[in-house]
Amino acid sequence: MQPLFDNLNVIKRQFQPTSAELKKLEDMQKSEQLVIEALAFIRGRSLSETFCIVDESQNLTPHEIKTIITRAGEGTKVVFTGDIQQIDQPYLDSQSNGLVYMIDKMKDQNLFAHVNLVKGERSKLSELASTLL
Length: 133
What we know:
mainly alpha
């Protein structure tokens, strides 16, 4: 969970301490309009009128991807992010992970879209390591 909070803090640091944008983010967290939650808590839920972002989904199995998508109620959008070059599960690879599985199975469906980004934005060091290592 900490990486998600780290990224939220990166976003917050872009604003002045007294800015309306920072206040809006903090208000959204307090009112639970913006929630960061572990995947373990999704089973049995129905997420209606929700914009759900699932980060690091390259480390999910096809079964876990299905579990998440089948929680979507009316008006819900689900966005999966991930980098198949950064799989750190010993039983998954660039072909067997849930993200690639979902893309392959859903690619011709009109409710599905896929965008492949080719450049990272973390840092020049991170990009160099990703390329060379």
